[in-house]
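User: Second chain of the day. Same drill as before.
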Amino acid sequence: MLVVVKFGGTSVADVGRIKNVARKAAAKKDAGYDVVVISSAMAGITDQLIGYLKEISKNYSLREYDQLVSTGETANVPLITQALLELGYSAESFTGVQAGIKTNDTHSKARITAIDTERIKRALGEGKICVVAGFQGFSPASGNITTLGRGGSDTTAVALAAALKADLCEIYTDVDGVYTADPRVVRDARKLAVISHEEMLELASLGAKVLMPRCVEFGMNFNVDIMVLSSLEDKPGTLVTSKELNAGELRRKGIFTEEKMEKMVVRGVASDKNQAKITLRDLPDRPGIAAEIFTRLAGANVNVDMIIQNIAKDGRANISFTVPKTELNTALNTVNTFAADVPGVSAEADEDIAKVSIVGVGMLSHVGVASTMFQTLSNHGINILMISTSEIKISCVIDEKFTELAVRVLHDIFINGLGQR
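Assistant: Same format as last time:
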């Protein structure tokens, strides 16, 4: 039996918490598991390092960025390992390079391409607890250290769990599971005992910050069960799985859920304020114009989310789309360059927006969910600027000032029962 356990920045924020992490890993070993520990950097360290870099240069090298920020995780794993050694356990620390985590050559948001698990497996075979630095890997093409983007330690954990064919990947964080909404916004948000990979992937991509989308995607693609747990409290967590589990099976696994919660059409409400809207006005209405715009944005590594094009009038049309605020400057530079090449086209941006979404596989077989959502927002004076849907989610772009209100009223309707059918 093999378990991969990942600890976030708040879980390893000081020596006391590092010792607590070591005790948790040791308890897993005592329970008969082979154990691989993935660690983030101490809380605040990565931001501090980035702050130093920006003081030196606003236009810093992304290669040097990766070299710098990877040291946060690299510094933590020997500390956890030494704490395990002090407890009398055999343990060994690994950087991303030593753990065989190979990536492409995209600095600051690299993607894992392969993992050579030979060294980790050898250490596990020797009875060692392996402690691996999250968030980092290396590009075989260049030999450079790379990082996986913020929250990349979650991705490291699930990817290693997949590569090692682990029985479970446990993500320890400062919350005790996945909730129906952010408890800081909705006081009566409820913890979910179990949620599907598909639902969790949607929630993560729509603003829920418990798990990063890429780690959930790995879990879904490689059928890795993920348990979200608190590192500070001994409480039941949330199981993220693609397996069909009924209430009896869940209880046998020590996971308890209410029958009403199992039958909910909507499983969660999420919001994301890290959104900006760009509108290109007076575009020539001809084939290929949209392809040219979004090919340029893709070439600049801009992640585009929602896209709306209006009906053309007098041979001209408008296109609006959303991007993360962190990528707004890059996106604007790209579309302004495009606009300069096409007479009459102009670009404008709006940063005062947010996206609010509802998610649930039950929406596949229930009618009226969209109309209930739109009517609820309308009843509270919240105007919808853009709409996007999939089989299991509906997202609306609204004015940012209404974000918390929108989350609360949608949670009341869909989670507390008024909108369930």
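Residues 193 and 256 are 6 Å apart (CA to CA).

User: Great, on to the next one.
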